[in-house]
Design brief:
Strand order of the largest sheet: 5-4-3-6-7-9-8
Strand content: 5-15%
Shape: elongated
Order of helices and strands: HHHHHEEHHHHEHEHEHHHEHHEHHEE
CATH architecture of the largest domain: 3-Layer(aba) Sandwich
Number of strands: 9
Distance between the termini: 75 Å
Number of helices: 18
CATH superfamily of the largest domain: Vaccinia Virus protein VP39
Structural class: alpha/beta
Length: 345
């Protein structure tokens, strides 16, 4: 008499949970080199013997077995006579460029959400381990679109002396170094471990003569510049030579979009760096934000951390009220970012 629903709640919940876990298991197999071997012509035809392959990885045989079995239950692999084969879905994940990297970048958002939801952690720079995970995930998401867009503006306007506000682990500075050997710069960050990581990365790349990261309050570096620069040892000459200030996904989060504080900070840029351009990158509400494959998760993070987003119009108006002028604007899909290149009128 009564028909059961076509999509029972238990089935929906299981699919949601298993989807995330399956992608993580699949990434672990990729990281261990298992999937690359399975794409080889001979192995693709005959299948992979997990026990024989375990010796070539750092995975214990029982762990490799467990991952392969789980991936098989998720439909990404199949098992026949003890040998593993990629299914059509599993092969598509491997062969479509950037898909697994996208999954890896997405996992950082989930990592933050997990701890917010159980109220064990909050998204705050003071928690360096969780904050570092969020920064690294952001860097991975930004590789395909955001970094190239920033690089294009830097090169087009021939900026050579950069100040990277809230520089994270130095990825953006190192990217700019590779764009032009004329570029030098300073990164400022309030998170000590991340600043040390940035300097280590700069040294590894052999760029220590061109770049350095220093620990300081990033907002104060824009509003109380002399005191901050004197304390961290940035010379008056370098200060005067700075021609571009990079503030990527920083100002809105650092000020919780308190408009008075945003205007104060931007006015500090106009006052302390009258000859430099400011390149802001801020997430904005608009059609492109909703096109992100993780838009729902980002929106949940914003709600849980009691943050909101402005439209590009509000940012433009706020920048003008602070005494700056927008000379170029670029709307991006990733994270719904808008790039505002600003200068003093």
């Amino acid at each position: 008499m009564f028909s059961s629903p076509k999509k029972p709640g238990r089935d929906i919940a299981q699919r949601l949970v298993s989807g995330h876990v399956a992608l993580q298991a699949y990434w672990a197999l990729k990281h261990a080199g298992v999937l690359d071997v399975m794409l080889e012509e001979e192995v693709a035809a005959e299948g992979l013997d997990p026990r024989a392959y375990a010796d070539r990885t750092r995975l214990a045989p029982e762990i490799l077995d467990a991952l392969i079995n789980y991936a098989a239950r998720a439909g990404l692999l199949s098992i026949k006579d003890g040998r593993a084969f990629l299914t059509a879905d599993g092969r598509a994940l491997m062969e479509e460029n950037g898909v697994l990297e996208m999954v890896r970048a997405y996992s950082g958002v989930l990592d933050v959400l997990e701890h917010l939801l159980v109220r064990l952690k909050t998204l705050h720079p003071g928690n360096s381990r969780r904050f570092e995970a969020a920064v690294e995930a952001q860097s991975q998401r930004w590789l395909p679109e955001v970094y190239p867009a920033i690089e294009e503006l830097i090169v087009k306007h021939r900026f050579t002396h950069l100040l990277d506000i809230d520089c994270g682990s130095g990825d953006l500075l190192i990217r700019m170094a590779k764009a032009s050997n004329q570029i030098v710069g300073v990164g400022v960050g309030s998170d000590g471990p991340l600043v040390r990581k940035a300097n280590a990365a700069i040294t590894t790349q052999g760029l220590e003569k061109r770049f350095i990261a220093v620990t300081a309050n990033s907002l104060d570096a824009l509003t109380e510049t002399k005191q901050v620069f004197d304390r961290v040892g940035i010379s008056q000459q370098l200060w005067r030579e700075i021609d571009c200030i990079l503030a990527a996904n920083f100002l809105g989060e650092a000020t919780s979009l308190n408009r008075d504080l945003v205007i104060k900070t931007l006015a500090g840029v106009a006052r302390n760096f009258p000859h430099a351009h400011l390149l802001l990158a801020e997430p904005t509400i608009g059609p492109k934000f909703d096109k992100n494959y993780y838009a729902s998760e980002l929106a949940l993070v914003l709600q849980l951390t009691r943050q909101s987003l402005w439209t590009a119009d509000i940012w433009r108006n706020t920048i003008t009220l602070a005494g700056l002028k927008v000379v170029a604007e670029t709307s991006l899909a990733t994270d719904g970012l808008t790039l505002f290149l600003c200068t003093t009128p």
